[in-house]
């Protein structure tokens, strides 16, 4: 994992050759003191290169100078000049700059050099965001690559500032953002893990390992869930050889232990074959990431504990595997959920909502949360509707929905609010049970949300359908192909906004 440090820039002090990325802000990058200094050290190579190339430092424009002097292996000039000033509340812009700097440095992969990102003077307030972006971008799931296949990347990266005071400023924000980065990378690790390694029991074990952070962890096993009446969740799990678990993480950070918690609820289907309503073979491997909602809940709970957030929060995840076997649930089966409502299971592939139905009703009853937010890779339909740019937001509470949308904009994890309504909800009426788990195909992301709504009562609730954003088949701003960790930054920012209001 990338080790980060914040230092005053002093290129002459080092023995290892440096790989330097200089972030270029302002009208004319060559006017920055940091530029002048580096240009001096490199005997004017930077200014010559800038002039030759006509480098203006616009956002997205980079210029690379190789081996200008012996102790500097490369200088990457990273254009950051935008039409409007960077706004600290929109921290994702600076994260992206950090990501771009790291990518530029890694692209030329100069073995044995030490990475440095130089921030021009006066930018210290943004240094931690740059560091977070670099750290997230450097992440690569290399666990199953043999030693010789592992890509050569930096082990350490220094974020260089102008003065000791600037280093102090950067470090105070980093104290919080480091915890955010830890949460995002934990989520990515969980989502990238294949289903033969991460199944309900091993997932539960990984969560239990977080006790040391100060999370109180309670596990409900199959027998306990049977006694509680989790008929909907258990119906999904019954076709699998793997025992299901519900895991509850509690974090108490508010001044009063009595204050109602914020609740985060996650779909943790460690593999979704579709069950008897089996999925097509093509792309089925992707269903190892159908526990993305649960992984995000675990990630954000770990972040809250690490940064000692001043809130009470509870995270609840349902861990099951949706498989085909002689014991598997059949289409047409009727199960009784924890809420008491009976459900006609017309399609065993619409299993996430069955898991969440029991978790939402249980969380509401047990913890009486002030808000309940669930995350799930719930429908293919949301991928069709919104692609990878927005996750679907469904809510019964306008203020909560707005707060989530705002937090998403600030951290660059965007949400798009989708409509709900009783005309949709009626499509889930069954004539032989209280509700059926699918309606028609049109609007099926909305129908899934309407199904969940039947289990949340009057608790202010939001459902984030992250099927299109939790996993990407291509590189994105801050991640390689694979898990993105989408939602951790968003929920952490939502909690921060909540903390400052209280
Ligand atoms: N896990 C899937 C949803 C999904 C699809 C996530 C693609 C990520 C990418 C979910 O359990 C599912 O199978 N949903 C069905 C519901 C349908 C049967 C009503 C779907 O979306 O097709
Ligand atoms: Zn499914
Ligand atoms: Zn699923």
What does this entry look like structurally?
This protein has 502 residues and is an alpha/beta fold. The chain has two domains: 3-184, Leucine Aminopeptidase, subunit E, domain 1, CATH 3.40.220.10; 193-484, Zn peptidases (Aminopeptidase, 3-Layer(aba) Sandwich). 35% of the residues lie in helices and 22% in strands. The protein has helices spanning 33-41, 45-53, 92-107, 127-138, 164-192, 200-208, 222-228, 231-237, 292-306, 352-367, 380-386, 398-411, 422-425, 444-453, 488-501, and strands spanning 3-8, 18-24, 62-69, 72-79, 114-118, 156-161, 216-220, 245-252, 262-272, 312-322, 333-336, 342-345, 371-376, 391-395, 415-417, 435-436, 461-465, 471-472, 482-483. The strands form four sheets. Strands 7-8-10-9-13-17-14-15 form an eight-stranded mixed beta sheet, sandwiched between helices. It has a six-stranded mixed beta sheet with strand order 1-6-5-2-4-3, with helices on both faces. It has a three-stranded mixed beta sheet with strand order 11-12-16, with helices on one face. α4 (127-138) links the parallel β5 (114-118) and β6. The chain starts with a strand and ends with a helix. The model has no long low-confidence stretch (mean pLDDT 95). It binds ligand BES and zinc ion (2 copies). Ligand BES is lined by residues 272, 290, 347, 349-352, 377-381, 383, 438, 444, 467. One zinc ion is lined by residues 269, 272, 290, 351-352.
